[in-house]
Write a sequence for this structure.
């Protein structure tokens, strides 16, 4: 009797205890992905239906199957692929340079009040100028070759990385700084054991913003001064009024952005394994 | 043969292990000057366990910060073996009220962090870390992160981190103040065992009078506004380390009355008589 009672009591308890980790571990990831697909799929359906019913003139918004055709053609004849590689390379180089310099500069500015007082006003003013505003001057100095793209993309990634890194470095809890003093930490130990780990969330916010900026700038700079790349493809498609070309380039840019964003989140979570799972 | 001579010399020696000589400290708070510490004089000998009790605001934590060398802007002198304290050093360790473990390092790495500037080799460090995790009973949790530990466990890690450098002085700033009552009692025993085992000289700041009496060889009672030493009571051997011993209770009540806490309506001796009946 007592055994039976305890068995019925532990039975449901066990099953819920067993179910909880499953829900937590697998369901949300898949669930969020599915939920995230609801709106795009809805829009796609509306677009398809509208196109089928002839509500959308083809010149304004080509039907999805034509966009898909263009996309597949571009992959097959290699033109889309080579444009993508060109653009990826530009963003990778510009972002890597901008983010690397931004991390070092942001850390230095965050650590040193003197340096901050020196550069803050100028930097804040410069960062207000849209990247495109710089282009005429940069073109005059370096021309319109690869250097231009890398500099402009790098600069647009640099700004958010610097701002967020220096903020993160300044926001290191005073208690940890004091601990570093008590343990007689060297500057290097303080930086690697306390300051940078504590600034990881801010740094990643900066990197994400920098990367998004980099992509936007890429498209802008390729619209103006390039004969290849995804941005060029968009400009070209617009001029020829081939909106399916524009749309397929947009899809590629969006998908690559999603993948890179996911990789950054993965890297951040890996660096922050110590956080309790619920707060991730 | 030379042992007793050495000991008696040390006992009589003019420089104490730690000497706080006429220390005063003023803060500027919102434009007003506040006297945090006034003419503190205290000498601590090797191997001693000194408890400092007082109401909040009596400057007892400030005093520990000065001994640590975190703040050198004060009047008077704080000397270790006759040398003025100029900066923090690995000879003085502290356990704060909050554990202050670095959340991104696991238990092992947190303890090892204290050895970064020690100049020891990796093998030696690893052994010290293992020994001290064993000392606080956390061998099994070497790879756990602070977020996975209970408050009491985290504070044990903090104690291990403070002792792993084999410091001359262990400074304890209300180390058990944030823990629940049961954990606190358990850790008091453990602290006593560990400090004896390591032979460290300890200065404990607390507002828990029981804790001060239980752990201290001497009890320094401080009064606030300005922070000053009211008296220093020795904890004689007659007071066994038994919280319900009459001598323990008598000393505790004496400390309480120094702190201005009157035991309304109940005479201490009557209470003792009632308890033993």
């Amino acid at each position: 009797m007592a055994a039976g009672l305890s068995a019925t009591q532990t039975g449901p308890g066990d099953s819920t205890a067993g179910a909880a980790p499953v829900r937590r571990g697998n369901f949300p990831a898949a669930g969020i992905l599915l939920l995230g697909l609801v709106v795009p799929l809805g829009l796609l359906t509306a677009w398809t239906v509208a196109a089928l019913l002839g509500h959308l003139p083809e010149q304004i918004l080509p039907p999805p199957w034509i966009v898909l055709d263009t996309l597949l053609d571009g992959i097959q004849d290699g033109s889309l692929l080579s444009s993508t590689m060109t653009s990826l390379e530009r963003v990778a180089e510009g972002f890597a340079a901008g983010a690397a310099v931004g991390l070092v500069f942001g850390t230095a500015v965050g650590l040193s009040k003197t340096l901050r007082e020196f550069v803050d006003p100028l930097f804040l003013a410069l960062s207000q100028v849209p990247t495109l505003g710089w282009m005429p001057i940069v073109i005059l100095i370096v021309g319109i070759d690869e250097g231009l793209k890398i500099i402009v993309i790098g600069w647009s990634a640099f700004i958010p990385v610097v701002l967020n890194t220096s903020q993160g470095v300044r926001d290191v809890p005073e208690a940890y700084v004091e601990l570093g003093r008590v343990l007689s930490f060297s500057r290097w130990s303080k930086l690697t054991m306390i300051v940078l780990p504590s600034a990881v969330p801010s740094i990643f916010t900066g990197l994400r913003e920098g990367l998004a900026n980099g992509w936007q700038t890429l498209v802008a700079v390729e619209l103006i001064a390039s004969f290849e790349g995804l941005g060029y493809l968009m400009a070209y498609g617009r001029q020829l009024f081939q909106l399916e070309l524009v749309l397929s380039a947009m899809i590629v840019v969006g998908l690559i952005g999603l993948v890179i964003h996911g990789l950054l989140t993965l890297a951040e979570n890996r660096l922050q394994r110590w956080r309790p799972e619920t707060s991730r | 043969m030379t042992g007793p001579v050495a000991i008696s010399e040390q006992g009589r020696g003019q420089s104490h292990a730690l000497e706080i000589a006429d220390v005063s400290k003023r803060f500027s708070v919102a434009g007003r000057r506040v006297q945090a510490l006034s003419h503190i004089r205290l000498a601590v000998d090797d191997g001693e366990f000194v408890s400092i009790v007082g109401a909040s605001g009596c400057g007892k934590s400030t005093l520990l910060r000065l001994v640590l060398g975190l703040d050198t802007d004060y009047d008077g002198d704080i000397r270790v073996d006759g040398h003025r304290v100029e900066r923090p050093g690995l000879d003085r360790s502290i356990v704060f009220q909050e554990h202050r473990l670095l959340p991104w390092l696991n238990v092992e790495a947190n303890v090892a962090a204290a050895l970064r500037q020690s100049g020891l080799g990796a093998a030696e460090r690893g052994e010290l870390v293992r020994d001290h995790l064993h000392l606080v009973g956390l061998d099994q949790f070497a790879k756990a992160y602070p977020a996975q530990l209970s408050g009491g466990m985290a504070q044990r890690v903090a104690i291990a981190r403070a002792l792993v450098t084999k410091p001359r002085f262990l400074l304890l700033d209300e180390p058990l103040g944030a823990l629940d009552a049961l954990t606190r009692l358990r850790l008091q025993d453990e602290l006593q065992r560990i400090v004896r085992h390591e032979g460290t000289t300890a200065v404990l700041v607390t507002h828990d009078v029981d804790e001060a009496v239980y752990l201290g060889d001497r009890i320094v009672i401080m009064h606030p506004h300005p922070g000053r030493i009211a008296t220093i009571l020795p904890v004689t051997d007659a007071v066994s380390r038994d919280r319900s011993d009459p001598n323990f209770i008598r000393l505790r009540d004496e400390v309480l009355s120094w702190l201005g806490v009157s035991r309304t309506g109940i005479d201490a001796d009557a209470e003792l008589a009632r308890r033993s009946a």
Notes: Chain A touches chain B at residues 175-176, 178-179, 181-186, 189, 193-194, 197-198, 200, 272-276 (CB under 8 Å).
